[in-house]
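Training component of the fellowship. As part of building independent skills, the fellow (R.M.) carried out the full modelling exercise for a liganded target. The chosen ligand was pyridoxal-5'-phosphate. The inputs are recorded below so that the supervisory panel can assess the work.
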Amino acid sequence: MEFNFADRMGQIEEGIFTTLANIKKERIKEGKAVYDLSVGTPDFMPDRHVMDALIEAAKHPENYKYAISDSDELLDAVILWYKRRYNVDLEKDEITSLAGSQEGLSRIALTICNPNETVLVPNPGYPIFSIGPLLNDAKIEYYELREENNYLIDFDSIPEEVAKRAKAMVVSYPANPICRTAPKSFYEDLIKFAKKYNIIILHDNAYSELVYDGKEGISFLSVEGAKEVGIEFNSLSKSYNLTGCRISFAVGNKEIISQFKKLRSQVDYGVFIPVQKAAVAALTGPQVSVERNRQEYEDRRNALCDGLNSIGWKGAVSEGTMFAWAPLPEGYTNSEKFVLELIDKTGVFCVPGSVFGSLGEGYVRFALVKTVEEMKEIVNVIKESGIIK
Ligand SMILES: Cc1ncc(COP(=O)(O)O)c(C=O)c1O
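Fellow's submitted model of the complex:
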């Protein structure tokens, strides 16, 4: 039989992580060194009280039924957390849970766009920002994030006709992969832009708890007018090390949330009840580990970025997220080629910037998933390899 798959499959490439995972497997088989800074999965444990809440709930057979919707307890926990953390007031119908922000971002365009309507997405940007709309048969158009603007959006550089036809815009700070944060004034400009062109803002705030150098992560919804123009995605994956539990939220504008919930009611039957219980425990329980983990990431960032700088690989930075973003060392121009050479010479794995869009070329992204001591060792291995000319 001959299969004719959908054209959209041609727009999606096999993820680089599969390629890197295969190389990693080979190296391990050959007994070669591997220092994996490619994938952004936290190496920290969830808090004991969070695991206990999940374990306890998992002991009860009635909790294996379809959850269908978010429990009141969960919605109250989100309301409490947004108030305590960002001083943002939410109501229950301004919240929906998601099976991870990734899942939410892969579907939200279905509620907003007809086929071929435009979603503005960042270049460079986290891949699901563009793959999501494409899967939903929307069209994507890129806005540029450039180092000379400190990777903030230059609204004047977005052509008027593009802004006019855009129905939605994905914005995300602290930003993966470029590791920059945005000040409140940026969000004020964003809201003005959204109102002027009638564009729905989809703000992904996966890393508000991972901001460095004494700054504090903020919510888009804490800025006046935000709820009139959009929603925010907020994930428990990185803030509470619950990546595999798949629990996140979309919060904000009632109309958008209500449409999204209507769509979701046809395609999923709610988050597993023990996972809802774990989320309640995380959001309402002791918060000590959130700051402890943030500090550890910052220490790792320092060890990696300062270390690379000291051996002549200049320019690695991170203002937030669990990553660092670095221009290629002098003498290299192709990020994919460089990553493969780095692996070959050192066993250090990172991600070529080109994966995140054309403007990511010339850079690599490191995940801060090794201890300070290991980061120092990694810097030393890179130094000894002679790859920095
Ligand atoms: C910017 C950004 N958004 C969303 C996600 C996915 O989050 P979740 O685990 O909630 O799907 C990630 C994961 O790396 C991310 O970096």
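The panel noted the following from the submitted structure. Residues 288-310 form the longest helix (23 residues). DSSP finds 14 helices and twelve strands in the chain.
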